[in-house]
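Q: Two folds, back to back.
A: First:
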Amino acid sequence: MSEWWSRNRQRVFQLTGTLLAIALLVALLKDEGWSEILLTFKTIKISDLLWVALLFSISRIATVGRWHVLLKSGGIDMRLKDTTALTFTGLFASNFLPTTIGGDVVRLAGAMQMGFDRAVCLASIAADRLIGMLGMAMTLPVGLAYSWSLLQADPASLMSTAWFQRPVRFLKRTFSVFGLWLKRPASLFSSLIFTWIHMLCVFGSIHIFMDDLGNHTSFWMIAGLWSLTYFITLLPISVNGYGVQELAFTFFISNVAGVSTSVGLSVAVLLRAFFILSSLPGALFLPAIMSAMAKQKKGTTPEDILL
């Protein structure tokens, strides 16, 4: 029993955290009133939903471009359509598969199935995640500046939590496999540009929703608060941040921007819906990759991936 617990402890904690976060989210939705939430949804214009769908499409293309640049500069001659397929499959896996099969594991398995070098592919995935974090870290100070009055109540406890432990651990482990791209700064900068495009699309989507709901909010405030939400979601207390992302964003946007809780919840739920919907194309490619993973004698564990 103790051996089973040591192997599955983090998974159990994540599942428990996910259930608790979702339960709190449902309770908050119920407290605000389902009718009010539905009324808020109805005020969103169809044209704006289409604009957000376009922004999310561009965001996903930018995510593909970021990893493709890193693969090419690392000597992996993968076709763009294959990079696209693996990226979307990874996104789909992160949203729909069990916690033991992360999106990065699926991407790595797919790349290995195509015959590419495991070490370089693994390093490129780690670098891809790092650059995504670096982009969000650039707007994190803005979020901290806007919300400092909320966070300064007990800064010691804030720093003593796992807030920064996981990103710091990720950085330490990643730099050991990051040397290949440090020699190619142009490729790193190109992938960072793709990250900025992705970020602008997400921030722009939130801005559209907020304006549609009659709550004009500064673009930079949205950028900062979403960055805070992003780093909170990295904490390993929930599967793919389910519940935690929605609660954190609602808390910050309600207390800092001064919007109603129902509006914050509505925007958070809409964002989650678009993140999930935009990953659905990955379902087309998942069966072949899952089959390849099953045939591998030595499968990759989630711990092999740095985040």
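A: Second:
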Amino acid sequence: MALCFTPQNHMMPVAAIAALHLLHLLAVTPVLHAATNVALPGCLSKCGEVSVPYPFGVGAGCYYEGFMLTCDETHSPPKLFLGNTSAVVLNISLHHGRLDIDNGIASLTGRNPYSMNWGVPLDDSIFALSSFWNNFFVMGCGFKFQVMLPDSENMIVMCNSSCLNGQPAVATDGTCSGVGCCEASLPGSSNMYSIKLDPLGAENGTTEQPFNASFVIAEKEWWNTNNHGMLLQKAVSDGLVTPWGIPGSAPPLQIKAGGKWNFRNLSCADARRSSDYGCLSSNSYCHDHWNGESSGYICRCKHGYEGNPYITNGCHADTHECTIGDKYPCFGDCINMDGSYNCVCPHGTSGNPKKPHGCIKDTEKFSGIGCGGCLVLLIFAVILLRQKLRARKAKKLRNFYFRKNRGLLLQQLVDKDIAEKMIFSLDEQEKATNTFDVDRKIGKGGHSTVYKGILSDQRVVAIKMSRRAIQSETDSFINEVAILSQVNDRNVVKLFGCCLETEVPLLVERLRIALEVARSLAYLHSAASISIVHRDIKATNILLDDNLTAKVSDFGASRGIPIDETRITTAIQGTFGYLDTECYNTRRLTEKSDVYSFGVMLVELLTREKPHIYMTAAGYSLVEQFLILHRQDKLSEILDPQVAKEGEEEARVVAEIAAMCVSSSGEDRPTMKQVEMRLEVLQSAATSIKNTKN
């Protein structure tokens, strides 16, 4: 069955080209129902085993332009051909716009390269072989096979097939992987392809033997199903395909290739406005379709209808779905409707009637619902019981910590009535801080985190929570509670109470108005019932309220010094950069240790540098660099430009005070009371100058 080839090499004395039908090793069964594909009245509706639906047709007046078929009744059974070509039609699908053909086979032998065009001579706007469904299968060996579209050399697909010693020239096991057979995809959906065959080694002149090649365009699924590929290879290997024909005793084999077709190369929108719109049946609709080569449209019957949409009233008024159980399953009561059907469960049952045993009696359903409801209630009861057990365990744990922490606190507090009034519950603290929301965090130290809280009486407080649950941290917390309970000064944060219901105690500190850190420390050193050394004065332990008023905070490291003593020996504690160098070397704690730390804080205010991270290239700390520049009268090199601009003289005085406070010897440092007085004088002078300018 020669489709069409146009030789482009005129020197082919050895080669013979044949397009032939193979022996009938198996047949391709058409997949069409005559009842659903209707021809025009008086026209042939079937040729052999293949239905002929309009717009296809055999004979004058029976087909639409471009869809002519030929029925050759000299064969048994009769064969249907595409127009006047040798392509045999195997199946026509109206709904999917598909056309399956027997594409034939071509054979070439020789030593010289060959070029040709090979395909089906039909209008590309109507029909095209699908590159998605089909491949080239080239049987034989000793060649390089190339294929491209005739009007484009941009897309070239190729494959090689080599011959191995001792192996037959054609593979016979159904494989097509480069030995005795090779496979190449179609470069695009089309009706015609440019083929080129070269002997292996021709490019370097090392051709060893003549090549032989037999190639087909076949559907990939067909090749890999029911050993079709292997049977075709054996037929070629056994010489059933020769340059001179096929032995007459063998029946033909049909090779299936899939193509797509369009009724017209118009979109549905344009087709509806045209005078020759193809969807003539009232129960049909237009479907935009791409045949792989060009866009167009096909017609389909509406859902629930069958027939031919290209003929007036061609789509049957209704398909009786209830009588076609395999296509329209229904295991309940089936009700036929116009264009569709309805499947419902019988009375007294419910479920899915389209599935076997899908309809269940309502009593069984209610029983299942009851069991499901009981299961839900049981799960709910288990969850509720678990929550109550957890709450009970948490309550016991809170009571345990309450007793433990309360005992430690009361050991250091003289007035037990005051202690009782200062105790807050954990629920109150969680509510005040929105469960210790990270957005409420206003500070963080080495031992604790400070949160902003709002009590039920709308008091704004700071809530300090220790981060570690070890005994030393608990002792530090109790120490801070004990110290702050004895302090009542407006310059020091006021202690309102504490929570003892967790393993890590909580500290509640009132954000009150205060004047200056120096005045606060002076009070702690001299005005309190015992002299209190803070031991950890630094910027992060100074809280600021909405009015930017300073409040001394974090007394976890504080120590009390009896009135009759001036110093005590203790372990080193404080923050790097603020830590008193003399205390660090001698381990002797005095009030001057706070003076040193306060001086460092003044240096920080003057320079806007962080003492714990500042380091010069020469290795000097912030305090050392400050003292060096102060002695050299070069403070402008380290002072914050804004500070120097707004008050150069005041900055110089503060620098003098800071230099005295950070003196290496405690005896050379002033007391906090002296510092307070110097700063008050400076503040008064600065205020007077400001008022005079105003």
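Q: And?
A: The chain has four domains: 5-261, 268-317, 396-512, 516-694.
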